[in-house]
Predict the structure.
Amino acid sequence: MMTTSDALPAEAAASLDERPARRWVGRAFLRPLPLAAAVVVLVSVLAALFAPQLAAFSGNDPFTYHADALGPDTAPAGALGGVSGDHWFGVEPGTGRDLFSLVVYGARVSLLVGLASTLLATVIGVVLGIVAGAVGGVVEKLVDFATDVTLGFPFLIFAIALSALFPLEAPRALLLTLVIGMFGWPSIARVVAAETRVIVRQPYVVASRVMGARFGHVFRHQVLPNVASTVIVFSCISLPGRIAAEATLSFLGVGMLPPTPSWGRSIGDAINWLLVDPAFLLFPAAALFLVTFSFTILGDTLRDALDPRGGRP
Amino acid sequence: MTTASDLLVLDALHVAIAGRTIVSGLDLTVRRGRITALVGESGSGKSISALSTIGLQPAGAEVRGSARLDGEELVGLAPGPLRQVRAHRVGTVFQEPGQSLSPVMKVSAAFRDVLAVREDLRGAARVRERTRELLASVGLPDPDRTAASYPHELSGGEMQRVVIALALSGDPDLLIADEPTTALDVTVQRGILELLRRIVEERAVGVLLITHDMGVVGEIADEVVVLKDGAVVETGSVREVLGNASAPYTRELLTAVPRLAEALEHASAADGAAEEGEPVVRVEGLSVEYRRRGGAHRALDGVGMEIRPGQIHGLVGESGSGKSTWGKALAGLVPVEASTLELGGVDPRTLGRAARRAAYAQVGMVFQNPASSLNPRRTVGWSVAEPLQLEGTTSRADAARRVAAALEQVRLPASYTRRLPHELSGGQRQRVSIARALIRRPSLLVADEPTSALDVTIQAHVIEVLREAIEEARFACVFISHDLAVVGSLADHVTVLRAGRAVEQGTAREVLGSPQHEYTRALLASIPDPERRLSPR
């Protein structure tokens, strides 16, 4: 009979060592570009949260008309669209509203609609994806069919038609969130379903089922933790697209209604003034670009950080 | 010291990746017409040594020392000339033939591309002629059919022969074979080993054979270099190293190889084991059919078994013989037809949904691949306690106590509960799987190739852990393996499966000691044996 010390081979000699240190995910964000992106996102979130205070700090609000800041042709008086100590980003041509306040308030709509619709799309996509991938059979076919139908639907036309039907006094942000969210789930459902199909064939899931696991247990403990990193990364990467979608709808005049400030609508208005006052286009467009670009960089960084193979060295 | 027949000479080859030394000072010689085996367990640096020799080390690896092919230094050679060396003078064969061939190209297309580079051969007719010649030279009976096939239409052995034929194009001086038979069934392995031997003798090429299997070394190698953690432990002729190993590590490797003779000894000792207790499993006329589009495939056809507590029933067969399906059928994972199917005296098919779930929950399972047997996002403690959580009757404190006990049963410290699977070695993960399967005190354990992905020394320990657990807890066990020697060293009863039918069934001593069926005899004869060529003929 072997004694225990004989029986513990070389392999077990290392067993009493300290557990190897796990790599900290946040480390990937400490490089210059992701750090800058994080600062931009943080600033935009803070701007959205404290928009009234920020606007008041500059001595303005996004609703007051400043006819005195406009020239005789209703274009802003002064250089760069009327940039001055009173109006940091200048004023809106035609109305004289403070552009800094408009941009700061615009962050509210963009981020709210972007985040809420991404959350909605992710929840629908993950649930349908896991159910389709894990259950298979008719359920999978139904989800696949729903995915195909949704993907095949002309999103813009549908959104425009819907906003015409939607009563004007109802909250537009809710409508936009629902429309963008309901059209956003198929891509994430597909990715999750494909991963789930692989995971449920893994021996650890089979072992779980042999031991009497029901679907709820497999869903919560086996599949969800293993698709989590994909889902997080995928939502982060799709977030800028959703912010842009809101801006697109507002640009086309079927998104946020005046007088609620929105980057997309400001950009749309600015197109008409492009030759007279190019600065009017500059500030909202730069805000939109910086925020979507930063979210994209953060999504990429997160993907690299969560990749178990380590991503870039 | 260097003679004319020295083909490849490695002198103090040193490989480091990111400052970490992988190989430290490897000396090795491959001669024309000879096979030099580089032996070691996973992570010993044997594959990276071979790849570094021909300039294929991973990006960022630092290679020092010297590697001379026919006197020409390869270390530090510019990429262009190195590519010429690889194209015309070296052929390589890798482990997984299915991954060595592009799945979207016919074999003939692979030859067309390779021949254009390695032999500068153009023109459809000439390429077809040369392809036929090469395929015939590796013992493929119908070269034209093979050339017109896609890889998935070929068997594993045929694919590996195609890969060898590709490696032989351009008449290389040196053939590097990295675990060429590890992914193959034993009977197929025998054919490939014989082919390699024949190639060496006919073509006077030198072969650098990388393997973890002392049996393979004993079968065909001439020289042996044993590598451990990147350092050479022992060098010598096959006779010296296998017959009279000086290094303790080499001896450990050799004793860890499961041997049929020892297995038989164990089997005869176990033969007297009392046939006591009610059978845990009783199966008769078990058939499993997989339905696919356009037909059905009968994976199991009218097989049966009976296992009593404390007994181990070995299922042996080559890939596709239905042995894993049998294990799944016992765990209720595949729809079955059977005249009798009883788990603990009850037919689960007659039970209601919940009761059936509970009945099958009496079956524990251990799988082959340690990398995928545990949920990568959950700690070891969670995985081991999962069966208790599913049962739902154990308190948290009680569960923690039982997890610690189960880990102790497989000889892992209780501190391992907080680790994640990727922080464990393969053997440790496999022991965690066993602990998970045992924690609810199952009446039946289905172990599906639990050791075949492990190194031999670790395999020996996992088997020991399993054997002790069975002696202690007296559960019945179905042990599935392609390795007759492993099964023989463990099992009381053995069933030999072929294409879904049981060709032979009986006690381990009967089946392995005096096999009646021709197929069993062929399987037994195919087991590579380190000592086969050492014993006087």
User: Anything to note?
Assistant: Residues 276 and 449 of chain B are 27 Å apart (CA to CA).
